[in-house]
Amino acid sequence: MRVLGKQTFALLGAIFWASVMLACGPGPQPGHKEPVPIGWLELPCQEMRFTCLGSEKQVCRTSALALVPADSDWQEVVWLAQGEQVSISASGTWTFDRNMPPTDANGYPGARNAGATIPDANLGSLVARVGDGPPLLIGLQTRIVADREGCLLLRINDTADLEDNEGWLKVEIARMD
């Protein structure tokens, strides 16, 4: 299997974004319920909020997509207000060691490392945090309530050495009403 570098991964993300733009148009439309892909926009996290746009026709962004690579540290996804509830679900595969078979967002059952982001969670699992808050285990799907205002950050549960990681997850974050 060929290892994709960060530049190749960024190019793939740009292609993904362009294909979504062609399929969905330039952004959320009235009544549009599809997730808005945000993982490849070069915007500060504070500008990526779940908000309603316009005054006459309320267009609400209620969900977002992010591509989270295994070989990158915390990825900014969307800004959350304190108390905001979101559902997070992931698909795809990645690995914390390119010599290991790929796994999903639940990680490798029983594999632990004292130096991991969450030491008592499976290595390779999807983890999150809000702002500078404590890390939270996400796995394939969970719901969280933001305990503080801040950017929702995602990454693989691993040690600080991410260079031998491969793959990525597609993560949907949906606001809960």
The Rg value, from CA coordinates, equals 16 Å
Q: End-to-end distance, in Å?
A: 42 Å
The domain count comes to 1
Sequence of secondary-structure elements: HEEEEEEEEEEE
State the helical fraction: 10-25%
Q: Which strand order spans the largest sheet, edge to edge or round the barrel?
A: 1-4-11-6-9
The CATH class designation is Mainly Beta
Most strands sheet: 5 strands, mixed
Total of helices: 1
Q: What gross morphology would you assign? A: globular
Look at the structure and give the mean pLDDT.
Answer: 77
The low-confidence runs, each spanning 5 or more residues with pLDDT under 50, are 14-43, 52-59
Query: What fraction of residues sit in β-strands?
Result: 25-35%
For this structure, the CATH topology is Jelly Rolls
CATH homologous superfamily classification: Galactose-binding lectin
Q: Structural class of the secondary elements? A: mainly beta
| CATH architecture assignment | Sandwich
Total E-strand runs: 11
What does this structure look like?
This protein is mainly beta. The chain has one domain (6-175): Sandwich (Jelly Rolls), CATH 2.60.120.430. It has one helix and eleven strands. The protein has one helix at 6-24; strands at 36-37, 52-53, 59-60, 63-69, 75-80, 85-95, 126-130, 136-137, 141-145, 150-156, 166-175. The strands form three sheets. Strands 1-4-11-6-9 form a five-stranded mixed beta sheet. A four-stranded antiparallel beta sheet has the order 5-10-7-8, with no helix packed on it.
